[in-house]
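Can't paste images in this forum, so I'm doing it all in text. The chain is below; anyone willing to post the predicted structure tokens underneath?
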Amino acid sequence: MKIIYRLTLIVAAASLLPVLAFFAAVSWFGLAYPQALLLAAAAVFLCGSLSVWALLAGLARPMAGMSQGVKRFIAGDYKLESVIPKDGWPEARVLISSLNRLMLELNAYRAFHLNQVVEERAKAQALIETITDGVMLVDDRGLLIYSNQRALDLLGIDKHDPNIVLPGSVKHETFAPVVSGLMASQENYLKAEVTVHDPDGDCDVCKNFRVISRQFLLATFKRSGRVILIRDVTVEKEIESARETFFHMITHDMRAPLTSIQGYAHLMEQYVPASPEAGKYLQAILRSSMRLNGMVEDILNTIKLEHGEMKLNPAAADAGEMCARVFEMYAPLASRKNIKFSLVPSPSKIDFNADVVLLERVISNLVGNALKFTPNGGEVSLFCSEAGGEVVFGVEDTGPGIPKDKHKEIFEKYTQLEEHKYMGFGLGLAMCKMAVELHRGRIWVESEEGKGSKFSFAIQTK
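Text version of the structure:
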């Protein structure tokens, strides 16, 4: 309110002075009225100018000080010298005092959060430096943003190099082409296996690494970057090799007794007196033995395919008949689970050359998986068709679906989704992939979580 009183006094004084000047001109100097009015007008202009100057002078200095102080603060000058001097009218000094307090509090808030960021960065850096994996962050041009020492050592990069760019700075001849492929790809998620041999050629001391890369967004620069993880999986590979050796041995030993169990079960069906209980038990024996036999076949086929020991026995094949045989084999299982299992007939006969036994095993695995994961009351369909010189087989279900980021992973050995784990070794889809690729075909999945799955594979008809 004080500033209003002050302005009122200035205006009153400015109004009074012209009146006094008019009376003085008439009474003291004897001027005529026109000259007196002219003098009064000049006095009005002079007093108005002085009043405006006095008013602006009282506001301009503190406003200029506030403007300069705020500009310094915005420019990053957070020192105490940035505090705005308190001059001008009392009202302006109150405003300046409030603004100074706000700037000091903002500075304290900034310092607090800056310390937090520095502390969290130090924690993250200490953690990353202590892990045995190599970790790197690069932008979309390959410029290094961050790397721990382990990654630099593995890739043969000089940490003192001020201009590290991938893949050019990678000196390790084994990792160089892998990193080059990762940087050239536009895919969001990539994974590669690398075997590093001993310089002397001693394979007993070979090391295996898995290189994983995923894109991320650099929000500060509004462009993409890539995180690269290099993990030593030598021990995992050794365990996997031991597991395969064990599986190979045990499966060979299991084949003979399984064949005997199935044979005797079939004989008992023919000669044991018919009864509901006996029939139920014999069917359970046959189903279990067939299931075990299928797992044994998956293991043996996977090992043969992986080591290049599987030889194709191509013969004339009818896609429709292959699907019909698999459908007939799995129809009872679908009925027991109350699953609507349908065979979609092909519009025409599809003839091609392939290893019929091996491809029927692929179809069986896909149908078995669909029936396994589809809940009671669901639907599974088996179909085949011809398009673009290929015969396409497919199995579609109404099961739980598969997340998109797992579509490639599920075709790897010993892989089972945590949320869909079931009894088995996780070899079925891996065997399917290798068998289809041995036919120079391709296999893929179309699925979304919660919306079912559709597995398909295509083989050239000629």
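The two ends are 97 Å apart (CA to CA). The first helix runs from residue 2 to 27.
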